[in-house]
Design goal:
The structure is a single chain. Helix 4 (165-170) links the parallel strand 7 and strand 8. The protein contains five helices and ten strands. With 209 residues, the protein is an alpha/beta fold. The model has no long low-confidence stretch (mean pLDDT 92). It has a single domain (5-204), classed as TIM Barrel, CATH 3.20.20.70. The chain starts with a strand and ends in a 5-residue tail after the last helix. Strands 1-2-3-4-5-6-7-8 form an eight-stranded parallel beta barrel.
Length: 209
C-alpha cells in the first residue's frame, strides 16, 4: 500500500500558500486560450520544497517551444493535453523531465489507443472529454478505470471534488499515480481555495492504494 499523491493545477495566484499545503505536484497552464493561462509576464516563485514537482501544461505546442519553457521555468514535468503524437512525446524525453500525456475519456473509451505511447511517456492522465481543451468540472465514470491494463501509472483528473473523492477509495483500481484537482478547488480561475485544499489533503492521508 502507498499514499495517493495529488496535483493542484491551474495556479496563477496564491502559489506560495498552496505550496505550504505540500501537494506533490503544482501545475501551470501554458495554453493561451485557458482562463488559467499564466500570462506572458509570469514569474515562477522560488521552490524551496524540492519534493513539489513543477508541471507545465501545454496543448499542441511544438517541441521547441515546450523545451524553451522547461528551461525558462525549470519545469520538472510537462503535461501534453492536446492531440500530441507519440513522436512529440518521444522528442521531449529526457532523464530530468517527466512526460504526462493526457487523454479525454468518455463512454466506450478504448484504452488500446494508449499503446503507441507506452514507451515514450512516464504517465498518462485521464480527464473528462469535453468540446474544448481544459477543465470542465465534470467527472467521467471512474469505474471505467477497471479496464485499464497497461503498466504506465496515471493521473486522474476531471471534476474531482470533496463531495466525490471518497468514491475513488471504494473502487478497485490500480496504477493511480495522483489525482489532479483544479476548478472544484478555486475561488476564481487561477486563485485556489486554501480551506478546501487543506480539507482534501486531510482526506487523502486516509487513502491507501
Amino acid at each position: 500500500m502507498s499514499r495517493l499523491r495529488w496535483k493542484v493545477c491551474g495556479l496563477r495566484d496564491n502559489i506560495a500558500e498552496v505550496m505550504a499545503l505540500q501537494p506533490d505536484y503544482i501545475g501551470f497552464i501554458f495554453y493561451p486560450k485557458s482562463p488559467r493561462f499564466i500570462g506572458h509576464d509570469f514569474k515562477m516563485p522560488a521552490f524551496h520544497e524540492k519534493s513539489i514537482k513543477k508541471v507545465g501544461v501545454f496543448v499542441n505546442e511544438s517541441v521547441d517551444v515546450v523545451q524553451d519553457m522547461v528551461e525558462k521555468f525549470k519545469l520538472d514535468v510537462v503535461q501534453l493535453h492536446g492531440s500530441e503524437s507519440p513522436e512529440v512525446c518521444e522528442g521531449l524525453q529526457s532523464p530530468n523531465l517527466g512526460v504526462i500525456k493526457a487523454f479525454h475519456v468518455e463512454e466506450g473509451f478504448d484504452f488500446e489507443i494508449l499503446k503507441p505511447y507506452e514507451m515514450v511517456v512516464d504517465f498518462f492522465l485521464f480527464d473528462t472529454k469535453t468540446s474544448q481543451y481544459g477543465g470542465s468540472g465534470r467527472a467521467f465514470d471512474w469505474a471505467m478505470l477497471q479496464k485499464y491494463a497497461l503498466n504506465i501509472p496515471y493521473f486522474l483528473s476531471g471534476g474531482i471534488s470533496l463531495e466525490n473523492i471518497d468514491d475513488l477509495n471504494k473502487l478497485e483500481v490500480s496504477k493511480i499515480q495522483a489525482i489532479d484537482v483544479n476548478s472544484k478547488f478555486e475561488i476564481e480561475p487561477g486563485l485556489k481555495d486554501l480551506g478546501m485544499l487543506g480539507e482534501l489533503s486531510r482526506k487523502l492521508k486516509m487513502f491507501e492504494i
